[in-house]
Sequence to fold (300 residues):
Amino acid sequence: MTEAEAIEKAKAGNAEAFETLYGLHKRRVYSLCLRMTGNVAEAEDLTQEAFLQLYRKIATFRGESAFSTWLHRLSVNVVLMHLRKKSLPEVSLQETLDPQDEEGPTKEFGEKDLALAGSIDRVNLERAISGLPPGYRMIFVLHDIEGYEHNEIAEMMKCSIGNSKSQLHKARLKLRGVLKTNRTERKVRHQE
Amino acid sequence: MTCVEFQRVLPFIIETGGNAEEEDHLQTCAVCKDLVEDLRYIADQAKLLVPMEDPNPRVWEGIQKSVEQEGLVKTGTLRKGLPGQSSLIWLLPMAAALVTTAMRFGLE
Fold:
């Protein structure tokens, strides 16, 4: 069964079509939920909820966008609703005024041979992302991994575009710090 | 332009580019140049991250249960087991029959 066939049959409540759609999209939906929450149990619950909502709402899918895009947006909304219910700070709505949070001129990383280019592997990057504070992680996942634009993120997260850019920047700075520290530690261990 | 001034506006110009003064600072300051390169590199690497892994099979079990309880399934029955596994299940007796047939011909 092709995806297009599965969509039409799922609208009629066809069980096999439900299975087909789940099989085609489970990995992407689950990965999104896991990256956004950083928690396996939550990600599993949210994946289940996303697909249930899909099956409930599939009759409303008109094909104006790609099905994967529609499902993706639905999944993001499921995660955001969940986080709002948990009263997690999705995004800090004010710029932090804590001076320690401000990254001044990073003179300690000013040497060419410490540049990150070519040194990040997927495992380390995933690990670093999962260690981000929830608000930073959300923006980073939505923008840099999932490809949402700042105006879309601002609408979803109910913040300003400037805030979205600022939070993304802080997320990237934190990742840079973590990745450089990890690399330095690996070098030291290698030398020992 | 100082590094502090440049890095203050960096979140808002990193994707679109800055004005002449900002671009000039970027070209002439090794610290800020490295910073921008690193941040862009992180963003580029993130784009390459693929969906990680499949959810635990219990997720599908939960969906099956809910879908049936809510009456969303109108035709057919959701098969037990993971999507895609059901096609393997009927292959097994078929394979056994083929092997048996082949052995019978072999003996004859």
Notes: Residues 3-85 of chain A form a domain with the Rna Polymerase Sigma Factor; Chain: A fold (CATH 1.10.1740.10). The CA atoms of residues 20 and 118 of chain A lie 39 Å apart. Chain A has eight helices and no strands.
